[in-house]
Predict the structure.
Amino acid sequence: MGETDISSYIICRENCSLRYLEALALNGFIKRFDIIDCDRKRFQKIRAYLIDGSVVESECRFDEEVRVSVRIIAGYIGLYRNKMIEKELRIAQSSKQKEE
């Protein structure tokens, strides 16, 4: 799947649930994110930047809820990055081939 093909999977762009952003991260669609303060005291939202360059924002939620989602999203982003690194690693020559 190319990076521009994800638009058909994005059904929410603004005021999305935190779980929705977590799901986007799980699928490897989120590249990075910011935490934005809302007008209400102790309320925040997450602005996620997707791999196709578009932006998705969560609804304003209590800051403790946002912190939990941030840990989940960051974990998924880290797992996805590690997974991509594994795909890029190649063994040029095995040790058995060197002995022969």
About this structure: The mean pLDDT is 85. The two ends are 41 Å apart (CA to CA).
